[in-house]
Amino acid sequence: MLPDLTIHPLRDCAEALAPLAIAFRSEWPNWYGPGGPGDAGADLAAFANPQGVLPVGLVALDAHGVPLGTATLKAAWTPEFAHLTPWASAGWVRPDLRRHGLGALLVRALAGEARRLGHSHLYCATATAITLLEREGWTDHAQTVHDGHIIRVFQRAL
Fold first, then answer.
1. What distance in Å separates the CA atoms of residue 71 and residue 59, rounded to the nearest whole number?
2. What is the mean pLDDT of residues 23-35?
3. Rounded distance between C-alpha atoms, residue 70 and residue 103, angstroms
4. Contact 118, 158 (CB under 8 A)
5. What is the pTM for the complete model shown?
């Protein structure tokens, strides 16, 4: 069962950036960990875009302001799919809350944000959130290999 939570634009929750950076480093150590090519702090700062245009990060907070999960809309994913926009990306849910519906809430909130920005479709590339996206009504769009992994690309009409 999920605790009481609210979903906010990341730009309005600067206090969430540091704990989310720690979570990203733990979740994706090959990318954000020591020696990895990513910079969790820089990425999250970009997702907290104050202009309210892409990229746009969302964060789920408990009643005490503790981040429980996050997800982002990005303009692009890879050059192969540069003609498609926007992309649901950077989805993370606190491990003890996974499989309780928070990921679905974040995906729905991203769809609402994409609609607000005037988009008619939303895309997501994943090897791990397939069941979630299928349950939420997303459809297969393509399959590709990215960084040596088979990735499925989904789309959702808005």
1. 7
2. 96
3. 8
4. no
5. 0.94
